Amino acid sequence: METAYQSDIGQQRSENQDRVDSFTTDAGMQLDLVADGIGGNRGGDVAAQTTVQALGQRFLKSAPNDEAAAKQWLADQVQQVNDQIIDESRKNENYQGMGTTLVAAIFFNDRQKIVIANIGDSRGYIMHQNVLTQVTVDHSLVNELVKNGDLTEQEAAVSPQNNIITRAIGISHDAQIDVNVFPFEPGDQLLMCSDGLSKTVDKQELTQVLQSDAPLKDKCSVLVEKANAAGGPDNITVLISQNDQER
């Protein structure tokens, strides 16, 4: 597995509250994480950093060894870190209301499947045979309105409510994550990102960058540059993992 990632403050933020990392066990299992913090007084930064570090360290100590275990592990670990962040926010008034979105992916040794979990509006995409598919569903007010027929997708794209999320770690003791399993074949690419990328760079541009023969680190840099060129209204974080097994 080849992996690269990059995080950028953007053009209009005073600090970067996104966090990204990738952890690989001695047995060759891998966990990719992207978190987008929520809250002032560095609260969002603390929530995102705590989530990424806690999940990464626990994965290195006790990585699940099959699909069913991975799904349960993600649900259990997200719930534990959720409670940890809520407790910390209650102890420190500066961190009240802090939280974070999360998209996480677990790869097994054989690289044939990928387990993806998300909460909030950070996203995961899979590039397979030059077709890019979003494999996570945003937990956002706008998305709920679209599903209910109260907004069209065109209206949602320009809605002033498109920054309101309906789920996140640290918001309530019931942290409901979505967990799904997808095939991940040789040559496939995983793209995970915060909404600083997905809300500024459209799917066609994402596809064009991933289709290129550039190294993964260069693809990350190009995507960050595109988001900043579009105004960079938020922190921008992108991670790309590619199944580098032979076809």
From TrEMBL:
User: Mind telling me which CDD domains this protein's record contains?
Assistant: PP2Cc
Pfam families referenced in this protein's UniProt entry, alphabetically: PP2C_2 (PF13672)
Recorded hits in InterPro entries, A to Z, give:
PP2C, PPM-type-like_dom_sf, PPM-type_phosphatase-like_dom
* UniProt domain PPM-type phosphatase: residue ranges: 2-243
The residue stretches assigned to a coiled coil in this entry are none
Q: Which NCBIfam families match?
A: Stp1_PP2C_phos
Recorded protein name is Stp1/IreP family PP2C-type Ser/Thr phosphatase
